[in-house]
Amino acid sequence: MTEERKNVRIHPSAIVEDGAKIGEGTSIWHHAHVRNNSELGRGCVLGKGVYIDTGVKIGHNARIQNRVSVYQGVIIGNNVFLGPHMVFTNDSYPRAFNQEWKIVKTLVKDGASIGANAVIICGLTLGEFCMIGSGSVVTKEIPPHALVYGNPARVHGYVCKCGLKKFPLPKKGEVVDITKFVCENCDRIMKGWVE
């Protein structure tokens, strides 16, 4: 392990391989495994049994809850929340007998939140501050601030950066001036998503 900064906490049962870069203030808890050539930013928390594959990049202040596996090809932005037991895939057509893996990249942008037991199919981009409900199966790109849930996951509205205000989904063909959406919790004016 290459400690990039001080104040890194690693539980004695965790494995951090040589060549892993761990940012200042990061905590790695029970039975976690961080592979070589992976990068964790400052202030990250990896819960019990988390697996970080080789070559994975994780931004600052990510919260990765118990039993999440982040496989090669997944890139995690800053301030991302990954709920317990959620799943990433990284090969569109896996077979036990085929040794020719084709890693397909998945990008989780800054501020995204993914609920417990959600499944993220590989090759997608999850937009900034999107919120994915527990148990969802995500098969399509997710726009910024979208609130999605279900199997397959569908957009049911939009949430503020603070995560507390749900804005309605525009009706089909309706033109909506999103600058009129103001969060009652934090007074932010919503802008930047595209339907």
Short description:
This protein has strands at residues 2-3, 9-10, 15-16, 21-22, 27-28, 33-34, 39-40, 45-46, 51-52, 57-58, 63-64, 69-70, 74-76, 81-82, 87-88, 106-108, 113-114, 119-120, 125-126, 131-132, 137-138, 146-149, 154-159, 166-167. With 195 residues, the chain is mostly beta strands.
Verbal overview:
This protein is mainly beta. A ten-stranded mixed sheet has the order 2-5-8-11-14-17-20-22-23-24, with no helix packed on it. The chain is globular, with a radius of gyration of 18 Å. The mean pLDDT is 90.
Q: What's the SSE blueprint?
A:
Elements: E1 2-3, E2 9-10, E3 15-16, E4 21-22, E5 27-28, E6 33-34, E7 39-40, E8 45-46, E9 51-52, E10 57-58, E11 63-64, E12 69-70, E13 74-76, E14 81-82, E15 87-88, E16 106-108, E17 113-114, E18 119-120, E19 125-126, E20 131-132, E21 137-138, E22 146-149, E23 154-159, E24 166-167
Parallel strand pairs: 1-4, 2-5, 3-6, 4-7, 5-8, 6-9, 7-10, 8-11, 9-12, 10-13, 11-14, 13-16, 14-17, 15-18, 16-19, 17-20, 18-21, 20-22
Antiparallel strand pairs: 22-23, 23-24
